[in-house]
Amino acid sequence: MEKIPMTAAGYTALETELKHCQQVERPRIIQQITEARGHGDLSENAEYHAAKEAQSHNEGRIAELEDKMARAEVIDVSKLSGDTVKFGATVTLVDEDTEKKQVWQIVGEPEADAKSGRISISSPLARALLGKKKGANVEVVTPGGAKAYEVLKVEWR
């Protein structure tokens, strides 16, 4: 069973979603199924089939969340330090072509969210950054072509 590295915040988010699926969604869906059963013939009852599908999706998500939590290896980023990029580091980069700055935190797969500035440790950019220090240049092959970055800062937040 392969461990999944994640921050404490990422683990808490999984816990919150699991509780929501179990304590809010599950009873709501069961109520929908009960109401739909009361509408008669189940073979042609679209509400019943939709509720059963929602139940299947919710139970699948619960199983997925429980699996991720069981395999989680929670790493306390606040206890990490150093000037080398590794899991949990917040890295400030500058695109060498556009001079545009970007800030990324390297996190576990389940908590990655590019819009929030968190990239998965298994992403091409994170893999290229691992082991690098301030001032290092990295080249990453992206779907849009090769990109070159310079590491401006490595922080631990």
UniProtKB/TrEMBL annotation:
Functionally, this protein is described as follows: Necessary for efficient RNA polymerase transcription elongation past template-encoded arresting sites. The arresting sites in DNA have the property of trapping a certain fraction of elongating RNA polymerases that pass through, resulting in locked ternary complexes. Cleavage of the nascent transcript by cleavage factors such as GreA or GreB allows the resumption of elongation from the new 3'terminus. GreA releases sequences of 2 to 3 nucleotides.
Q: Which UniProt keywords apply?
A: DNA-binding, Elongation factor, Protein biosynthesis, Transcription, Transcription regulation
One example GO MF annotation: translation elongation factor activity
Give the similarity note: Belongs to the GreA/GreB family.
Is Protein biosynthesis tagged as a keyword?
yes
Q: Per its UniProt record, what PROSITE patterns does this chain match?
A: GREAB_1 (PS00829)
Report any one BP term from Gene Ontology: regulation of DNA-templated transcription elongation
The protein's organism comes out as: Pseudorhodoplanes sinuspersici
| The name this protein goes by in its record | Transcription elongation factor GreA
